[in-house]
């Protein structure tokens, strides 16, 4: 089992290159199952979830090559449509195999997914939408079994905004017979990137980035190329780390437009934030960090995947900051761990009331999910002593070489085999 040892070493300074977005690369890799010719995807981050996805694609019979940040997939000869529990259990996004396999091959059997244990995370919206498109679906022994000779277009109004739910139904609709309309669709940049990928391979999707998607079914997708958009959550995580250490960093290969609300909150917290087309600079030198209230909502609101990092920001900042989580019912697992480091946080329902905690002290803490682990590393950057973060396999699901990137910014962080 690996651990991180993190010791405070003053302000983060320098430049960090942002990787491609995990939550865009994963759906796009599953979308490659729809194409009858080879597809090449670049700016793919090197992450555990990506490795798992590539294994799944190979299991289905796709030919896959992966060099640096470029993945090529040839899904012309898929031989089976079965996604087993052993691979699917670690990764939420594996549910995204369902739509593409079902719509192209008329059948799919996919284990119910794992991923971050931040709530119940049902997949009823995925199943209901596919049923509306004519699929016969049963859920037995932890597996979703779906069949349909050819999916039919439908008018789907989603009960809740769901990112992967929208993505699954959009992918299914691409090869369905007729024009599908998805209302109350997710507007996240990663949904837009998936639509761009699909359209560049022959799909006919309009409305991506709004809450209504219109998808004109086509008989087949062809090959092509795509570059994955930058990871806005990785970017935001480094910016918060710079803010709490009173640092001055530049994130390169970033997408400032996808992070507007987070950048606004960082400015409200007292940071000087400047942006160019593909870079963001955060300068906190000699400035006072103030607490900020945040409430998680679907895009373009404040992202739930930045909530844990802002919880730490509020503990370090002057004042009292309220962090309200409205998307997931169990996304405060970082709070008890931060409390062990001296953080003054009180949970009131779905709000964490974060008080300025004059001195955080190092402790052995346990990563419970991806962004919770990132928040513990950030806390370690300002705590007195050496923080030991356990179970860092969670962080490896979503951050590419986080310790190398932090080290280059001057942080003292080391990966050890415990
Ligand atoms: C791989 C990926 O892209 N993961 C992201 C995706 O997760 P994911 O797509 O799983 O999250 P959703 O947007 O689906 O979840 C939003 C809410 O809807 C609920 N829900 C969802 C589907 C469903 O069928 N029924 C249902 O009730 C969920 O339990 C949750 O309360 O969006 C989340 C919200 O921005 C992010 O935190 C995750 O990082
Ligand atoms: C919750 C997350 O991931 P997943 O949906 O893959 O569990 C995340 O990226 O913060």
UniProtKB/TrEMBL annotation:
This is UDP-N-acetylglucosamine 1-carboxyvinyltransferase. Its EC number is 2.5.1.7. GO terms for cellular component: cytoplasm. It is found in: Cytoplasm. GO terms for molecular function: UDP-N-acetylglucosamine 1-carboxyvinyltransferase activity. Belongs to the EPSP synthase family. MurA subfamily. Pathway: Cell wall biogenesis; peptidoglycan biosynthesis. It comes from the Bacteria. InterPro entries: Enolpyruvate_Tfrase_dom, Enolpyruvate_Tfrase_sf, MurA_subfamily, RNA3'P_cycl/enolpyr_Trfase_a/b, UDP_GlcNAc_COvinyl_MurA. Cell wall formation. Adds enolpyruvyl to UDP-N-acetylglucosamine. It catalyses: phosphoenolpyruvate + UDP-N-acetyl-alpha-D-glucosamine = UDP-N-acetyl-3-O-(1-carboxyvinyl)-alpha-D-glucosamine + phosphate. It comes from Alishewanella jeotgali KCTC 22429.
